[in-house]
Every structure is written in C-alpha cells, then in structure tokens.
Amino acid sequence: MVYAHNVLPEHVAELLRYAEKYYDELTTELGFTRFDNFWTWDRRAKIYLLADKQDYVRFIKGGAWSGACADVLTKKIVTHVGMSNFFESILIHEVSHLVFREFVGFEKRLPLWLDEGIATFLEKQFRQERADFVRGVAASPFFMTLSDLEKAGALRTAIPAVFYAEAASIVEFLVSTYGQERFRQFCRELRQMPLHGDWTAALKRVYAFENLEALNQAWTNYLFRSRSD
C-alpha cells in the first residue's frame, strides 16, 4: 500500500509495480515462498512516498544523508521522488529489509552487518562494482574485520561505503562458496531460534564455523584469493 503526498499518480503506479516485482523476486531467491501465508494482503507493507527531499527529511525528522528508510517493526518504508538509482538500488534494498525480517522475526537480535549485508547483496545490479571495491579495500588500512563490523554497526561509527560493501561481501562469500540452499537453511535456522537466542549457533549448525573469527578468516582468505585471480 502506498501513501503519497503531492506526488503524481504515475509515480505511485511505478512504485507499486516495482515493489511487487521485487517482493516476488526476493521471496523466491531467499526461498521464503515455500512458507504458507508468509506475507498475506492484510499484513503487507506501507510505503510513504513524499514529493521531494525536504518533505522526506521533515517526515522522518532527520536523516538528511539518506534517501529512504525502513522500519521493520511497523513494516513501513519512507522515501521520496527524484532520486537517482531509486528503482535499481534503494527500493530493493528497503524491501529486502522488510522481507528478511518478516521471515526471521522482527525482534531477533542480529548484527547490523547481517541485516545490511543481505539487503545490499540483493541489489544485484551493483554486485561486481561492490566486489571490486572490497577487494581493493582488503589491502588497505580502511579494511574492517568481522569484529570491526560488529562493533561499528552497534555504535554506528563505520564509514558507510566500507561497511555496506563489506557486509554484502560476507553474504556473497557464503552464497557463492556454499550455495543458495545452504544460505536459505541459515535463514530458516534464524527463524526457528528463540527470541533472545544466539544467532551464531545457527551459523555454526549450517556452516560449521566455530565462531566469528573462523568466519572472518574464511572470508578474508576468499577476498585475497579473488584479488589475486
């Protein structure tokens, strides 16, 4: 459902068309369509479409650096008309947040890099560009280990370009190395874990990583192998 303010009807129609398209693509790619009543009509998301950046900033009461935001608890996306790469990147990113959290649980305690990594990874158009960027960062002082990502995500202190690209790179590593089906199983394990459970237990069961350090080592090895190819 779209709520529009001072926006042309054709903008609303285009937004609805893309949002439905991305929902279908994402639930299929993540394997969520197998679950009955995963996202029924009466539980669907609300998208607030504002006329311009000023309206957007006023509506969300800040966040001038962003072009859109998603509230997973209320299943709400707020955005505005006139952004570059909106349909190619921003919209699919925000819809991904809602789809993933609808599936695994809104109040599960997951690291920010995992939420953002999945949403950024699903922006397919920019995967190669991001991969090249991370391979370059991996040999620089700006590189962040998985532990760094965990801390920076909690404190919101990371350089956004590095944080988002590296988070997506970890998800890409898991999918490309172990396959989509195992990643889907990982998501199902997250869905089934207790509300205050330890998400790394799901990581260990599905991927056999004893801890985050083991995942970090495997991921960085993958980056340096890719960099030398």
What does it look like?
The chain is of the alpha/beta class and 229 residues long. It folds into two domains: 2-104, Collagenase ColT, N-terminal domain (Glutaredoxin, 3-Layer(aba) Sandwich); 112-228, no CATH class. Helices cover 60% and strands 7% of the residues. It has helices at residues 9-29, 53-60, 86-104, 112-121, 127-137, 146-155, 160-178, 180-192, 199-207, 212-228; strands spanning 2-4, 46-50, 68-71, 76-80. Strands 1-2-4-3 form a four-stranded mixed beta sheet. A hairpin with a 4-residue loop joins strand 3 and strand 4 (76-80). Helix 8 (180-192) packs antiparallel against helix 9. The protein is globular.
Short characterization:
With 229 residues, the chain is an alpha/beta fold. It has ten helices and four strands, in the order βαβαββαααααααα.
